[in-house]
Design goal:
Structural class: mainly beta
Number of helices: 1
Largest sheet: 10 strands, mixed
Shape: elongated
Radius of gyration: 22 Å
Order of helices and strands: EEHEEEEEEEE
Helix content: under 10%
Strand content: over 45%
Length: 213
């Protein structure tokens, strides 16, 4: 089920949506041990995947204001993951004809909540040059159970955690169809969202020339 609503008034526009999905499937490759189990169960590893099944619910609101030059963007999204009301069994089919060989229907005995917020500004420095900056923030609750219940460290990906990211892009349009861009993007993950990472922060910079058809 999905509902959406939007409005445009002069230089202001806003959109909101609500989305609910039953039996959402997050598929992943089989581990070496799972492959052996799948073969023993009579399935072909070539079209069989491991799957985490959940009932998901999302709502979001986002807005834009155009000052006649600079533009400001803001948004917020709230996502929850819970155990499925109707669990799937091994052997179930999913999109693409893949078989769910290993199924986890209890990954969210405690509901997982992910909150995402972002804001950005686009400034025209001239008729041909734009500068865009943006910030993105993620916040996850602790949905771990057992010994890790309530954790806020990197001991498990189910621990509470945050991610912060910022980007900056300079775009120069030197003809109708060609433009040159230079952008940089910095991210920093903490606690549960950094679990399994070799580096908890990255800085990526890229440049290029683009042709628009």
């Amino acid at each position: 089920m999905q509902l959406d609503l939007g409005v445009d008034i002069a230089g202001f526009s806003a959109d909101a949506y609500y989305f609910k999905k039953k039996n959402a499937i997050a598929a992943s490759p089989l581990s070496a041990v799972q492959v052996q189990d799948i073969i023993a169960a009579g399935y072909s590893p070539s079209n069989t995947v491991a799957a985490t099944v959940s009932d998901d619910e999302t709502y979001a609101v986002m807005a834009l204001y155009n000052f006649g030059g600079p533009k400001i963007y803001v948004g917020y999204e709230h996502i929850t993951f819970s155990n499925p009301d109707n669990p799937l069994n091994p052997g179930s089919l999913t999109i693409g004809g893949y078989v769910l060989g290993v199924v986890n229907n209890t990954a969210f005995n405690k509901e997982r909540t992910l909150q995402v917020a972002w804001a950005g500004i686009k400034i025209p420095l001239s008729d041909a040059i734009d500068l865009t900056g943006a910030y993105y923030g993620y916040k996850q609750n602790s949905f771990a159970t057992g010994a890790n219940a309530g954790c806020s460290s990197t001991v498990a990906s189910q621990c509470s955690g945050t991610e912060n990211a910022a980007s900056l892009v300079l775009d120069y349009r030197f003809s109708k169809r060609f433009d040159w861009y230079l952008g940089t993007f910095y991210t920093k993950v903490n606690d549960g969202l950094a679990s399994g990472f070799l580096n908890d922060n990255t800085l990526t910079t890229t440049t290029g020339i683009r042709f628009r058809f």
